[in-house]
Amino acid sequence: MRFYSVVIPIYNRPDEIEELLESLTQQTFSNFEIIVVEDGSTIKCDHICEAYSSKLNLQYYFKENSGQGFSRNFGFEKAKGDYFIVFDSDCIIPNDYFEQVEEHLNKEKLDAFGGPDAALDSFTRIQKAISYSMTSFFTTGGIRGGNKQLEKFRPRSFNMGISKEVFEKTQGYLITRMGEDIEFSIRIENAGFKIGLIPNAKVYHKRRTKLGQFYKQLFFFGRGRINIFRFYKNELKLVHLLPLFFVLGLAFWISTLFWNINLFEIGAAIIALYYIMIGIDAFIKTNDFLVSSLSLVTSFIQLFAYGLGFIKESFTYIKQPKPTGLR
């Protein structure tokens, strides 16, 4: 039986960590420890961790702010497990998560793994719509852990596991923000380790609760993709350019209103068809008309914000081609 170390970086989100810790008390598999790393928060969660210390094998550390990547490294250095698992603080873990991981690793040895994310029935409709937009094949190409993907699977830090050997060889995250989890996954792969998706090791990811927060997050994700390009020139694929094409295509379509009304009408029909497909797909997956309607909004934000962030950081790249966020 393997021993797992769960590393959770947190910054000013005590309410989130309480829900996460509560879900970890419900696990059917208990051979794990929890390391909470408070990354210089002004609103601490130490009292919440103290309340759960009698229910869980839990360690709490407070450190100066350095960003989530380096905070995870801090936790890895304290960890005693055979595998280190990273969760975002806004995740809720199904009670069979570790059981699913253990069962899969018994059948197939993986050095690093990840799983998909999903939405709970208790989530707000906006959270469910955001969850759809971040996992839909129509908006992300399924690159965040879905079974249908336009590129090879690489784990993301909201739900990611690595062996102790991986950390010892790679020394963890090289950058702390701006695509740190993607860079880490690529480096794990390049070091010759075996990476895989564990489809049943899902987490419930609450994500953002307001559309404005979601916009800012996706804008930052778009910038992060260009930062990855600074490290790995061959890692910019067609699927990553889709939000850029969306923004440029939208700008071109709007411009046709002033010089070619026929072309404008054709563009409107194409956009309408695309969003009809999203609405139908969202309704099939959520069985909720309001969520599927909101998914049209969140899908637009997902593509538009990511594309704008991509463009913004591309101009920054011209001035500063070297990687940012290094140790």
From TrEMBL:
The keyword Calcium does not apply. Residues 5-167 form the Glycosyltransferase 2-like domain. Its EC number is 2.4.-.-. InterPro entries: Glyco_trans_2-like, Glycosyltransf_2, Nucleotide-diphossugar_trans. It holds the Pfam family Glycos_transf_2. Keywords: Glycosyltransferase, Membrane, Transferase, Transmembrane, Transmembrane helix. It is an enzyme of class 2 (transferase). One of its GO terms (molecular function) is glycosyltransferase activity. The chain crosses the membrane at residues 238-259, 266-284, 290-311. This is Glycosyltransferase. It comes from Marivirga arenosa. The lineage of its organism: Bacteria, Pseudomonadati, Bacteroidota, Cytophagia, Cytophagales.
